[in-house]
Known about the structure:
This is ROK family protein. Keywords: Carbohydrate metabolism, Xylose metabolism. Belongs to the ROK (NagC/XylR) family. Transcriptional repressor of xylose-utilizing enzymes. This protein is an alpha/beta fold. The chain folds into 3 domains: 3-74, Orthogonal Bundle (Arc Repressor Mutant, subunit A); 79-185, ATPase, nucleotide binding domain (Nucleotidyltransferase, domain 5, 2-Layer Sandwich), CATH 3.30.420; 189-309, Nucleotidyltransferase, domain 5. The protein has helices at 3-23, 28-35, 39-51, 123-134, 169-173, 186-197, 253-270, 308-320; strands at 25-27, 55-61, 69-74, 80-90, 95-105, 110-117, 140-147, 149-152, 155-159, 181-185, 205-211, 218-223, 226-227, 275-280, 301-304. Helix 1 (3-23) packs across helix 3, helix 2 (28-35) crosses helix 3 and helix 6 crosses helix 8. The longest helix is centred in the N-terminal third of the chain and has 21 residues, at 3-23. The chain starts with a helix and ends in a 10-residue tail after the last helix. 32% of the residues are buried.
Amino acid sequence: xTQNQNLxxxxxxxxxxxxxxxxxxxxxxxxxxxxxxSVVTINALVKQLVEANILLExxxxxxxxxxxxxxxxxNYDLQHDLLLSIQEEKTADDxxxxxxxxxxxxxxxxxxxxxxxxxxxxxNELLTHVQHFLKQxxxxxxxxxxxxxxxxxxxxxxxWGDLFDGWNIEAALATLTDIPVRIQNDAHLMTIGYxxxxxxxxxxxxxxxxxxxxxxxxxxxxxxxxLVEGRHNLAGEAKYxxxxxxxxxxxxxxxxxxSVLEILAIYNAVIAPGAFVVRAGPLSRLPIENSLLxxxxxxxxxxxxxxxQASVTMGLRWLVMQESPWKMIL
Length: 330
């Protein structure tokens, strides 16, 4: 088979895999109709995908005319990923960290989940928690970790309360397992996850603002389906903005509103995004009419993240599927 024929076959295979990933189940006639491929090509590709365990043979389905046809199902359990999120959990009188973990299949179906207290913030405790999850499923393919911090060349350089600064998490996890590990900032993952969940256009630039109560904000820039980061991966550290670098976290909702509006005005002037994705303490809306935004040329859409965990989880799925043929389907 020539190189050109190989390329065409791989393109056809990717087209069929993508269709089945989205559809879930189909008979060969449906596959041919929806992909535009010939029945002969579909027969060959289905045989290859069944042998690779990507498609599973189901029961025969009686057709209106002719003989019954086999139904095929995409095997979402072909791969399981461990999605971990270190995040703050606020109680009435305290701030503490937890590690929330889920093991999901390719469809995102949760096979196992647990929330574990992260009381002693050190690498050994993190490894203990990860070991717990590694014992739950045998065929884990990848680990994704959401971190309240930024990583440069494997080392955390800026983090929640500076507690993780200097950590080389990937190297530490390598002492436990050879499963590939991907680590990313929580503001980035929230922004990407929300954008994917709500089908925001990849042609636009989206700026995310994650501003936890009693803490300082992180910023994410997601453009053309790609994260935009600066030197040392520090683009988005809003705590270094002039009005925040020497400031304390907002004391009340009014102070947080004013701070968020100032951040919006700065990034709207500099980036001119199509949309902002905002998670800021208890805020669910902003009095835009009292801000600088109406005086600026760019008029962005502003979305508020109601379900932080759902957005981070989707962001983590995007993260671990970057090398997957199905990454753009999420």
